Amino acid sequence: MTLTVFAAVLVAAAMHAGWNALVKSDLDRFLSVNLISLSAGLLALAAIPFVQVPIAAAWPYLIVSATFNTGYKLFLIQAYRAGDLGQVYPIARGAAPLLTAIVMAFGFGEILTPMAMTGVLILILGVTLMSVRGGHDLEKLDSRTIAFSLGTSFFIASYTVTDGLGARTNGDAVGYATWLFVVNEVMMLPILLAVRGGDAFRMLAPYWKRGFAGGAMTFGAYGLVIWATTQAPIALVAALRESSVLVATAISIFMLKEPITRWRLASALLIVAGLGMTRVG
Fold first, then answer.
1. Please, which pLDDT band fits residue 140 given cuts at 50, 70 and 90?
2. Residue 252 · residue 224 · CB < 8 Å
3. Is there a contact between 104 and 165 (Cβ–Cβ < 8 Å)?
4. Segment 38-51, tens digit of pLDDT
5. CB 3.0–4.6 Å: which of 13, 93, 207, 232 could bond 244 by disulfide?
6. Average pLDDT of span 121-137
7. How far apart are CA 53 and CA 67, in angstroms?
8. Which of 279, 201, 191, 186 is nearest to 240 (CA)?
9. How confident is the model at residue 209, as a pLDDT?
10. Phi/psi zone of residue 51: left (φ > 0), alpha (ψ -120 to 50 degrees), beta?
11. What does the pLDDT look like over 231-260, one tens digit per residue?
12. Positive or negative CA dihedral for 34, 82, 92, 260?
């Protein structure tokens, strides 16, 4: 992996943590996710005249990915209703890179080097430890939080593999990513209207600035990730992306006033060590 790709994924990770923090705010979780999804879809729609339409072979990937993305958002909403950011975010992200690596290795023959795979495993260990704050809040992790968080990680792995393969098939990551956000919103908008009706837009209107900030972050973050999967192994990109837990933890500590522990610091060091090994590998 080149330094440019490595840096791009880390920037994407920071932006991803940022929009997740916006979701875990005073606004209703369902509306928060839909606000950001709608904003990202509108931004992508505005960008469509400037990108190429995906080739025919890429459209099945776009449709399948949008389906996985919809499942991801619905599970994420329920996970954030059940637990706090410091618990849900790392659990939801922690299992995804391992699942991605397994699928890519056994399903598509894309195997990481021993050094890179070791780095991925260390990174996942750090994420896992951080997910329970070193065991400090383990007893507070109810089954509902765990179930929805792990379900979210399944969808993350699924759409990551699908989009990596889809962008490679398309040969144009920017065009693929832009159209993906449009198709995503085509699927999410009917759900929003079915659940909240015509009042949905009235409820979202006061938060449009937050929505477009989050929408821009998720559009930019995942666009970078999709591009990176065309330049490096998908499993490696998926693992590096999970460094976002460092930013999420910092947000949860300094902005949401969640507690800091020595185990969180130890987990952060493991994640940094894992990042270093994946870069070298």
1. low
2. no
3. no
4. 999 999 999 999 99
5. 13
6. 67
7. 20
8. 279
9. 86
10. beta
11. 999 999 998 887 777 776 777 677 666 666
12. positive
For the chain, the average pLDDT equals 85
The rounded distance, in Å, linking the Cα atoms of 212 and 199 is: 19
Which DSSP string do the residues of the chain spell out, in sequence order?
--HHHHHHHHHHHHHHHHHHHHHSSSS-HHHHHHHHHHHHHHHHHHHGGGSPPPPGGGHHHHHHHHHHHHHHHHHHHHHHHHS-HHHHHHHHHHSHHHHHHHHHHHHH-----HHHHHHHHHHHHHHHHHHTGGGTTGGG--HHHHHHHHHHHHHHHHHHHHHHHHHHHHT-HHHHHHHHHHHHHHHHHHHHHHHHGGGHHHHHGGGHHHHHHHHHHHHHHHHHHHHHHTTS-HHHHHHHHTTHHHHHHHHHHHTS-----HHHHHHHHHHHHHHHHHHH-
Cα dist from 213 to 23, 85, 125, 247, whole Å: 11, 19, 31, 17
How far is residue 216's CA from residue 199's CA, in Å, rounded to a whole number? 24
Characterize 45-67 residue by residue with b for buried, 16 or more Cβ atoms within 10 angstroms of its Cβ, and e for exposed.
eebeeeeeebeeebbebbebbbb
Q: Under a CB-based contact definition with an 8 Å cutoff, are residues 135 and 75 in contact? A: no
Q: Cβ distance 217 to 89 under 8 Å?
A: no
Tell me the pTM: 0.85
Give the integer Cα–Cα distance in Å for 39 and 169: 27
Distance from C-alpha of 236 to C-alpha of 38, rounded to nearest angstrom:
29
Cβ(161)–Cβ(280) below 8 Å:
no
Residue 14: is it exposed, middle or buried by C-beta count within 10 angstroms (0-12/13-18/19+)? middle
Beta carbons of 152 and 33 less than 8 angstroms apart: no
Q: Of 9-23, 190-204, 224-238, which has the strongest mean pLDDT?
A: 224-238
Distance CA 278, CA 228 (A): 14
